[in-house]
Amino acid sequence: MTVGGIALATDFALLIVAATVLSYAARLTKQPTIVAYVLTGVVVGPIGLGIVAEDQLIEVVSELGLGFLLFLLGIEMRFDDIRGIARPVGAIALGQAILQAVASTAVALLLGFTLFQSLMIALATTFGATPIIVKVLGDKEDLKALYGKVDVGILIFQDIYLVMALAILTVGTVDDVGEIAFSIGRVLALMSAIGVVAYLASKYFLPALLRASARNKSTLFTVGAAWAFLFIFAAESLELSVEIGAFLAGLALAQLPYSTELKERMRPATNFFIAVFFASIALQMELEQLLAYWQEALIASVLLIGINFVIVFGLFYSQRFDIETSFLGTISMLQVSEFSLVLGALAVDQGFVEEGILGFLSLMALITMPISTYYVIYNRQIYSYVRPVLERLEREDTIDAQPVEYDDHAVIVGYSRLTDELATVLEDAVDDIVFVEDGAEYVEELADAEYGFIFGNARHGDIRQAANLAGADVLVSASERIDVNRRLLEETDDAVSIVAATTDTDAETLSEAGADYVVDGRGLVGDAVARLLADLEDSETFDRQIEALNERAIGPSSRSTSDAGTGGETDV
Amino acid sequence: MYEMLFALTLIFVLAAVLLIVAAQRGLPVIPFYLLAGIVAGAFVDETALLDLAQWGIAFLVFLFGVHVDLDALRSRGRIGVGVGILQATVTGALGFGVGLGFGLDGVNAVYFGVAAALSSSLVATSYLDAPSGARPTYERLAESIHFTEDVLGVVVVLALGAFVYAATPALEQFAVAAGLIALGLGVRYLLFHRLTARLQGDSEVMMLVGISFVIGFIALAELAGLSIVVGAFAAGIAIADDYPHSLELVDTVDDLEDFFTPIFFVTVGALLTVPGFETGGYTIALLVAILVVNPLVLAAVLGRCGFDGRTAILAGLTLDQISVFTLLVAVEALAAEQIARPLFDAIVLATAISMLVASYTSRHGGSIVRSLDERGFLRAIGGTSGARTDVSEDLSDHVIVVDYQHGGRQLVEQRDRFDRPILVVEDNPTLMVEIEDHCDEYVYGDVLDDRVWAAARLEDAAAVVALSPERDSTEAVVDLETDVPRLVRVETTDAAVTFLERGADGVIYPDAIAADRIGDDLEALLADDISLEAFTQRSRDGEETTGE
Predict the structure, then answer these.
(1) A7, A104, A121, A552: most buried, per Cβ within 10 A?
(2) Which of chain B's residues have a Cβ under 8 Å away from the Cβ of A541?
(3) Per-residue model confidence (pLDDT) at position B124
(4) Which among A63, A507, A542 has the least Cβ separation from residue B1?
């Protein structure tokens, strides 16, 4: 045992520090962090400085990272998100998978790869890169735009395709056709068994489990991790891919109200581990392997971007999306995805292809991702250039699916007596009222109420995004954390804002931060009691005042429309 | 890979089940983790987990460093700091003596003393979730004492690193450690904000920056031959816990900690061996020191400082557990092969037991105090101090306000609105200076003490307003045998009903009062009766008349 020894200053530590430096640089150049992570492996591994070799800890953590990544992917599969546009999106995703696979295989064959290698490359290069699409579009606040919604929908369909590809790869190299069929059958049977377990759990077991665990800060995370580990371990024991196990574990949680909060809690650990995974890819590679097919990679990158543009744009267009949506939606998808590397790494592991193919895929990712980041960032500018050319394709009766979003609504953070009464006041003034609350004890009450409800803590960006603060007319926050309140105020545009403060300094800070109304609980109490005591002389008025105070405390709000019933008990 | 996965699955499934049970029963989770470790130890080779467990240590200490707020230390009250140091020194010296008496060598006697003396629970991880609003005096007091002992824990680790583990024990080690912490401070004030400003809130990269800080400082510490705890602490100091980093970096690292914490504690549990006779003896001695001696010493010291008996005992009862720092010290000592194995086992066992006991005593603090009171114990420790009471001989028709901090101050400021004298009853001596300046009539003491009510001339009073958030003291006010009308603060509708049935004349429910006021203002705004400016002005008016 070497606590206090040098275990932390090993290869693992060096890898993390290098990844930090490069991802910092990536952030400054607006590049996605995944490019920085892959480069990290290139720089510190045998190709570059040669100061880091893959050790056991790196291996374990990167494997965990992959499992957690797929777990989060499963959690994000919320079918509600694509409701309304599911049919055109499904058609695009299916068409894209088939046509791109054909095109990629043809390109790879043309470049001199064997048929088997070409099929592998085609399998691996069909995905859009989630980190770019979700991150860059998120930063541009375009995820809510129609093209962003469609792209995210396509990514969801691609996840299903990915899981099937993983399942096929797990079978491993076998020679006999009968054996292959048996292996695939076995994999599919076991997968469906795990899937059934996951489905039953999500119906009967998980809701109660998560409600019990949402009480405490750490429990939700630990329960989520335990759930993921159980499935990962089961998959590993059954010699299935751990990624599929993790994905199904996540899928079982996805439709529950706790999913966004759980996802946000697990994201830091996943980000940390997945950085190690992508950095470790190049650690096993020699320079010759990375550059084995560098010319082919260059040519393939250019060709695939061009061909895929035509395919995806055509598919968008055929589904009756307007020209702008088709164009913007298409160019966001034009790059080699992180899943190419996942599949490539797995294929190398299973002995399907040699390291050189992984090098080829890595190189393609390293070429297409940075470039595509820029054309996604500047997509509207590019569109304005090409518009004259595309305009002749313009037509009538395009799809105009308005994504479901809260708008002109009131966001209420924290459920309490106070916020509940304010919701009653606001009812007629806004289109919708959304509660954001992470107390498990209120879940049922809020889910049954006529208001919108997001389970989660407002400190997470995704939770705030789900509430669409920027479109809100009113913000009410009972959060006790001043940093959360400040962030909420920043993210609302010109909403009327009512926020709580616990100290005088906090109240001042919040006023300066733009709060319209700062609730100072102690001041209000002092004020109310002082008013009451002013009537102490006149015992009749005093008694009546107290009576009113008591009735307000134990009875429903005077504003509430429901019958207040018989007056509260009096006890004098 | 398979074994590692098995170990992690076992740890997390055990941890998840135990966490849910613990959360439902309101029990602390660390003892359960340690017990789970004993179970897991039978199936898992813990050496495979030690790498990850070290990250657990690093994260725990790092987060403590992050949440250390030097300004807060000052404002949290010197009393807590002084009392904490005094208590730790007294029990530490006693423990050291007992350790020598057990026949331990000098170093092991020091470990024994440390285990007996430190009884905090890493403030960063225990109090952070507590609502910052209404808290009774003894909790605020306990927080500052815990905090002091955490800092003492860091000093102990430093000292041990300098004199026990180092190849050549030397004072220079202290200088190097101080240099490392100074470097952390330098980074925090000179570099950190410049570094993070350009990230524009990208929490993914921010998190990596935080982790790299930990790694970098730990590497420096190891280079200098210091314990990794020192490095992790310095890394924590280097990170500023202010807006917006508290959202983007600190919260993220907090979430990450949830991954490493169960691994650390379960691994420690797995390190336990079957306890022998020697271990049993040490464990009992440690438990006596932690469960009996510490609270008594603390209560006595607090009583001497002028706190009333009840607050002193309640604060003392929050300190009846072995510190997480002690566990860190023990694990490090085990790694350095400096600690006797039976003593290590005893420390782990005593930690688990004392934490369970502590959760019981903190929940039943009120009844423990009452039973001590019946035996005349409270009066022996402290009591109403006449020097801090000022009541006019002919005071009558006055309003008695209990608890200055939770609305009492605002009420006193508005006394012009009603033509009556106000008398403040307060149990926190640190507030008395302010009360003496602002109020004419005041009584220092505990509302559970009849003498306080006699001094406050309850029978001549016109009304009692109890604003304390503590249930025990609210009950005491409601149960007073008097005809004077009593108004008490409640936090829930259920409590309102209960107290009204029990005899309170009125209940003050802050949330309902706020709902009334703000609801009216909001309705006026929505109906266009007032402008947005007027709406804002109304909230300010509320503040001005009450918050000056």
Answers:
(1) A121
(2) none
(3) 43
(4) A63
Q: Do the Cβ atoms of A3 and B13 come within 8 Å?
A: no
* Segment holding B399, helix H or strand E: strand B399-402
CB contact under 8 A, A426 and B335: no
Q: Residue B121 in contact with residue B64, Cβ under 8 Å? A: no
Within a 10 A sphere around the Cβ of A87, how many other Cβ atoms?
10
Higher pLDDT, B167 or A17: A17
Annotate B431-480 with DSSP letters as a single string: GHHHHHHH-SEEEES-TT-HHHHHHTTGGG-SEEEE----HHHHHHHHT-
- The tens digit of pLDDT for each residue in B281-327 reads 999 999 999 888 888 888 888 888 878 888 888 888 888 888 888 88
Q: How far is CA A262 from CA A217, A253, A265, B348, B500, in A?
A: 11, 9, 5, 32, 41
A547 or A401, higher pLDDT: A547
Task: Quick: pLDDT tens for A125-148.
Answer: 887 777 677 777 777 777 777 888
Q: Are A371 and A130 in contact (CB under 8 A)?
A: no
The minimum CA-CA distance between B303 and chain A, rounded to whole Å, is: 29
**Helices B341-363 and B30-41: angle between axes, nearest 10 degrees:** 140
Pick the CATH number of B2-129+136-377 from 1.20.1530.20, 1.10.287.3510, 3.40.50.620, 1.20.950.20: 1.20.1530.20
Residue of B497, B472, B469, B500 whose CA lies nearest to B486: B500
Whole-prediction pTM value? 0.82
What is the rounded average pLDDT of the residues A110-122? 88
User: How many CB atoms are located within 10 Å of the residue A70 CB?
Assistant: 31
Residue range B54-91, pLDDT digits in tens: 777 778 888 888 877 666 656 556 777 888 889 899 99
Encoding tokens for residue B377?
């114990």
Beta strands B422-426 and B399-402: pairing type?
parallel
Domain borders along chain B are 2-129+136-377, 386-508
Measured CA to CA, the distance from residue B158 to residue B152 in angstroms comes to: 10
Report all structural domains of chain A as residue ranges with CATH numbers, in order of start: 9-390 (1.20.1530.20), 410-554 (3.40.50.720)
Q: How many beta-carbon contacts under 8 Å exist across A and B? A: 349
Phi, psi angles (nearest 5°) of residue B42: -75, -25
User: Which class does domain B386-508 fall in?
Assistant: alpha beta
Of B2, B133, B255, the CB nearest to A269: B255
CB contact under 8 A, A516 and B535: yes
Taking the C-alpha atoms of residue A508 and residue B19, their distance in angstroms, rounded to an integer, is 39
Under 8 Å between Cβ of B145 and B321? no
Gap between the Cα atoms of B366 and B314, Å rounded:
8
Query: Which two three-digit tokens encode residue B242?
Result: 């202010």
Please give the C-alpha separations between residue A456 and each of A439, A463, B97, B478, in angstroms, as whole numbers: 8, 6, 52, 38
The span from the CA of A25 to the CA of B36, in Å, is 43
Beta-bridge mates of residue B463? B399
CA dist B87 and B296 (Å) reads 10
Structure-token pair, residue A135:
């991150």
Neighbouring-strand partners of residue B401:
B424, B465
Q: How many CA atoms lie within 13 A of A557 on its CB side?
A: 23
b/e A544-571 (16+ beta carbons within 10 angstroms → b): ebbbebbbbbbbbbeeeeeeeeeebeee
Q: Which residues of B touch A532 (CB under 8 A)?
A: 487, 506
Q: How far is CA A559 from the centre of its chain?
A: 40
Rounded Cα distance between B149 and B318, Å, is: 13
Closest by CA position to B319, among listed B365, B280, B285: B365
Task: Name, in order, each residue with C-beta under 8 angstroms of A154's C-beta and a sequence gap of 6 or more.
Answer: A89, A92, A93, A96, A128, A333
